[in-house]
Specification:
The protein has nine helices and 14 strands. By secondary structure, the chain is α/β, with parallel strands linked by helices. Strands 3-2-1-4-5-6 form a six-stranded parallel β-sheet, with helices on both faces. The protein has a three-stranded antiparallel β-sheet with strand order 7-10-11, with helices on one face. Strands 12-13-14 form a three-stranded antiparallel β-sheet.
Length: 309
């Protein structure tokens, strides 16, 4: 039986670490693609040479040629520029929109039945670009953000309470950025809502730290941004799809009326299985939560409005 095949576009820190996690979990053969000659080949070879030590038989190759990606089950898009000094978010969005448009067109020509997982920032806007470039139905264009944001929230909850991260569950809705909406009412430790376990002040502090999770890492690293947790969150989504696990994970998907939003990629809980996004899980929100969610959706709407036509 042939192994699954996953293409990871972009051989930078996020892409290479995602490729490593997928291969080392034995989930699929991995093709690492990058525009830079030698970079994906070198990282692919290095990952392949780790296989005997780690103990997996997944094939890892690096390439500059999309012909090598033919027949991929999943295509993960991590390629794009990091924000440079003096570059506005809008400048970054315009440049990355061009990159995502080009790589998605090349990838879907080789793998027309693939499921796309978008990781490039600004995430919510790049999902729109990928959907337009691919012509895929919404089930097969999914943004990785909520899985990362909820992992950060879970980490902070476990640190705060001195409990295992395994017993924490966290819910985060909305756009990927400082308008995201962590939902303490739906965030639990072994089934107990965190609202029963800590003060409103501490919860507010953890929510704020979660919303600024990426910026906190960037500030510490000085150069570059987070990649271990983003890669882990992406691999979690890949696993749920390839193994048809039907995990309920927060992801950015195109809403068609759910949560009162239409025609916009926003982070919501979805069931991820072999078909990609199999359904959106709608939950009831309090007035405050709904207002925060609508504020977040508005921020995404404004971002998408600035996309090049």
């Amino acid at each position: 039986m042939a192994r699954n095949k996953v293409t990871v576009i972009g051989a930078g820190h996020v892409g290479a670490t995602t490729a490593q996690r997928i291969a080392e979990a034995g989930l699929a053969d991995v093709v690492l693609v990058d525009i830079v000659e030698g970079l994906p080949q070198g990282k692919g070879l290095d990952l392949a040479e780790a296989a005997p030590v780690v103990g997996h038989d997944a094939r890892v190759i690096g390439t500059n040629d999309y012909a090598d990606t033919t027949g991929s089950d999943i295509v993960v898009v991590t390629s794009g520029l990091a924000r440079q000094p003096g570059m506005s978010r809008d400048d970054l969005m315009t440049k990355n929109a061009g990159i995502v448009d080009a790589v998605v067109k090349a990838a879907v020509a080789a793998s027309p039945d693939a499921i796309l997982i978008i990781v490039t920032n600004p995430l919510d806007a790049m999902c729109h670009v990928a959907m337009r470039a691919s012509g895929f139905p919404r089930e097969r264009v999914i943004g990785m953000a909520g899985a990362l944001d909820s992992a950060r929230f879970r980490t902070f909850i476990a640190m705060e309470l001195g409990v295992s991260v395994d017993d924490t569950h966290a819910f985060v809705l909305g756009g990927h950025g400082d308008t995201m909406v962590p939902l303490p009412r739906y965030s639990t430790v072994a089934g107990i809502p965190i609202t029963e376990l800590m003060t409103p002040e501490r919860i507010a502090a953890l929510c704020e730290r979660t919303a600024n999770g990426g910026a906190e890492v960037v500030a510490l690293l000085k150069t570059g941004s987070a990649y271990y947790a983003p890669a882990a969150a992406t691999a979690e989504m890949v696993e749920s799809i390839l193994l048809d696990r039907k995990r309920v994970l927060p992801c950015a998907v195109l809403l068609k009326g759910e949560f009162g939003v239409d025609g916009l990629f926003v982070g919501v809980p979805v069931v991820l299985g072999a078909g990609g996004m199999e359904r959106v899980v709608e939950i009831s929100l309090t007035d405050d939560e709904r207002a925060a969610f609508e504020h977040s959706a508005d921020a995404v709407r404004q971002l998408v409005a600035k996309l090049p036509a």
